[in-house]
Design brief:
heterodimer; A: alpha/beta; seven-stranded mixed beta sheet; five-stranded mixed beta sheet; 12 helices; 14 strands; 36% helix; 20% strand; globular; B: alpha/beta; Rossmann fold; 2 domains; six-stranded parallel beta sheet; 13 helices
């Protein structure tokens, strides 16, 4: 007898709701998925990203681990090699560094060093970035470190829909993914997201707004200010295209080059320190492949090359709309 | 004041330094076929090791870490494991790999600079050599978690050295194994040296086995030059793990007779007399004395075994030499399951500039 026709649930979700929904979907549809980390079980995670998951899927699927980040990452490597799909949470990016040994020396290279005999389909999630008045070590953006490492994918969502679709894609990807969640916009806005288990493609940029005069390239929480800047530019008669890179490694430079070929101007906006940031790689690739399309020097609007300050100064550290607008104006000068 | 916790560490030895068998030795010691089989396996491991060092000295192999003196531990560990179990080695457990079905030529390929050696004929689920120290203990813990999660009667065994017990990864793995009651055996191969640093400078603890206690894991010492004791203790530890009784740690005491690797010169930091003593009590000498005393072994058998080892090792070297070197494009083949579009250009570059014959 035919059952009721399944209807896709549409819900107004915040970015962190979308993370929870994606984890729940995959736990419910793939019994090899294991959610693990510090406080992810009963407590539902310090940001509530795993809220309710242990109650629903049990203590053997949603695991409160001992407090040891290298262990979380290292065990995830072993679990993944044995055919599970661990989705491990590092509570804050500032505590990810003990896990970096495992990410670089093992997760990133297990497939390569066994010629594909073993692989490492794991996701390491971590909230990152500033702007929530958190204590020291809770606000940095060090995604470029991971982007530099061959064998790792680095994915950063910037909206509820992309958090949902990209996290599903990350979990289903056969290789390790560092999934960095911009916590400043965890609850900034709600968006209608279809909880239908549909993944979004990795390794591609998302063009959030089309424009003709300047290309603004960004990712994570800075998409918010960048879109605001694009609105303001619209009021001044400047049409800005906004691209969310989303997968910062491997980088989809083609979408950026195609945009720059039309606009002739490029401003890269990121929260991380400027020195050796992902913006430098984008600027270099545009210089290599698209320099004759440029009508003005590439501009980078980035965090300063200083220690991320405590929260009284954090908004002075993070690039704001004014800095983005000024950078765009530099590209518009003749 | 109440004593709330106490511990003691036992040391197991059945075949002593003079090859005298203890009265309480397990039945294995009286099984002629099994004992001569262990001796054959240990001799093969040593023959392979000697050839590998020779290849390195003559420029035909890269840096290599000798297993000389570790044969009883390697063969004993391999015999304690089932084919479906998971082994996580350091960079020195060639003997375990050989006994688990990895080909000599594959091991040579890896140390000869070609990753394809680790796409081996041994158990597909075993971890490759681990060059960083102690990190593999966490992989074994993760694999053990997967086994427990699936309610499989399997176990994982992680080998590590004495120096590795100073690493955070080891303590984190031990702690997790205890907290999660994982089917995991830590095999601490205490060969007394971490490159140049002797174990007494590595720790203030009287034994490495007792480090297990703080993790809620039973720890035991075994004479790592006594293959009977190694087999017995590791079989029990593996059986415990498979039977749902949780993790354990076995500290196997031996001596690194060789240099740390072929790039090391142990003469810089330890006395020759110490090494000479180690040669008197090493596992093959001891086992042969035992087999001879039982009249299970003679010079004819020894010569036949040596010839067999030579044949196998020489055939492996021939295969190793005949293996085609890696295609430079292989750098890209297994980076990801699918090569990202952005790397196609670099793949083209490596093809254009590929050096004929590779970089010898």
């Amino acid at each position: 007898m035919p059952g009721p026709v399944a209807t896709t649930e549409m819900a107004e979700l915040t970015l962190i709701d979308a993370v929870t929904a994606a984890l729940a979907w995959e736990l419910g549809h793939d019994n090899t998925v294991i959610v693990m980390g510090e406080d992810v079980g009963v407590n539902g995670g310090v940001f509530r990203a795993t809220d309710g998951l242990q109650q629903k899927y049990g203590e053997d699927r949603v695991i409160d681990t001992p407090l040891a980040e290298a262990m979380i990452a290292g065990m995830a490597v072993g679990m993944a090699a044995e055919g599970l799909k661990p989705v491990a949470e590092i509570q804050f990016m500032g505590f990810i560094y003990p896990a970096v040994d495992q990410l670089i020396n093992h997760a990133a290279r297990l497939r390569n060093r066994t010629r594909g005999r073993l692989s490492c389909p794991m996701v390491l999630r971590a909230p990152f970035g500033g702007g929530i008045h958190a204590p020291e070590h809770h606000s940095e953006s060090t995604e470029a470190m991971f982007a530099h490492m061959p064998g790792l994918r680095v994915v950063i969502p910037s909206s509820p829909a992309r958090a949902y679709g990209l996290l599903l894609a990350a979990i289903r990807d056969p290789d390790p993914v560092v999934f960095l969640e911009p916590k400043r916009i965890y609850r900034l806005a709600r968006q209608e997201v279809a909880d239908d288990g549909a993944a979004l493609p990795l390794d591609v940029c998302y063009t959030l707004r089309e424009g003709e005069d300047v290309t603004l390239v960004t990712w994570g929480a800075m998409t918010h200010e960048t879109l605001q800047a694009a609105d303001a530019l619209g009021g001044e008669g400047v049409s800005a295209e906004v691209i969310d890179v989303a997968t910062i490694s491997p980088l989809d430079i083609d979408t950026i080059l195609e945009s720059v070929a039309r606009t002739g101007r490029l401003v890269i906006v990121h929260e991380a320190a400027r020195n050796c940031g992902v913006g430098a790689e984008i600027a270099a690739l545009v210089a290599e492949h698209g320099i004759y399309d440029l009508k003005a020097p590439v501009q980078r609007v980035a965090g300063f090359d200083t220690i991320m300050p405590l929260y009284q100064l954090e908004m002075d550290y993070l690039p704001g709309v004014a800095r983005i607008l000024d950078a765009v104006r530099v590209t518009l000068e003749d | 004041m109440n004593s709330v916790a106490h511990f003691e560490i036992e040391r197991v030895q059945y075949l002593d330094e003079q090859a005298q068998l203890a009265a309480d030795a397990p039945p294995l010691a009286n099984d002629r076929a099994a004992m001569t089989d262990l001796y054959r396996a240990m001799t093969r491991v040593r023959a392979f090791d000697a050839k590998a060092i020779n290849l390195q000295r003559t420029g035909k192999l890269g840096t290599y870490a000798s297993s000389l003196g570790h044969e009883a531990i390697h063969v004993g560990a391999a015999r304690a494991l089932e084919p479906a179990d998971v082994f996580a080695p350091t960079y020195r457990e060639h003997g375990v790999l050989l006994e688990r079905g990895v080909r000599m030529s594959e091991i040579l390929s890896y140390w000869g600079g070609d990753e394809s050696g680790m796409a081996w004929s041994g158990p597909a689920q075993d971890f490759p050599y681990c060059i960083p120290i102690a990190t593999q203990t966490l992989h074994a813990a993760g694999a053990a978690f997967a086994m427990k999660h699936r309610r499989q009667a399997r176990c994982a065994l992680a080998a590590l050295g004495d120096g590795a017990t100073s690493e955070g990864a080891f303590y984190e793995a031990l702690n997790a194994a205890g907290a999660m009651r994982l089917p995991l055996v830590f095999l601490v191969i205490n060969n007394r040296y971490a490159i140049s640093v002797p174990v007494h400078k590595q720790t203030g603890a009287a034994t490495l086995a007792q480090k297990a206690i703080a993790g809620g894991v039973p720890g035991i010492q075994v004479d790592g030059n006594d293959v009977i004791a190694v087999c017995d203790v590791l079989r029990q530890a593996a059986a415990r793990a498979r039977g749902g009784e949780g993790p354990s740690l076995v500290e196997a005491l031996t001596y690194r007779i060789g240099d740390h690797t072929t790039a090391d010169d142990a003469g810089r930091y330890r006395a020759g007399a110490e090494v000479e003593h180690a040669r008197q009590v090493e596992p093959l000498v001891r086992l042969r004395r035992y087999l001879s005393a039982r009249d299970w072994w003679d010079e004819n058998a020894e010569q036949a075994l040596r010839r067999d080892c030579d044949t196998r090792v020489n055939a492996a070297v021939k295969t190793y030499f005949a293996r085609p070197g890696p295609d430079p494009a292989q750098m890209f083949t297994h980076l990801f399951a699918r090569l990202p579009a952005r790397l196609e250009e670099q793949l083209d570059t490596v093809r254009i500039y590929a050096r004929p014959g590779g970089d010898d």
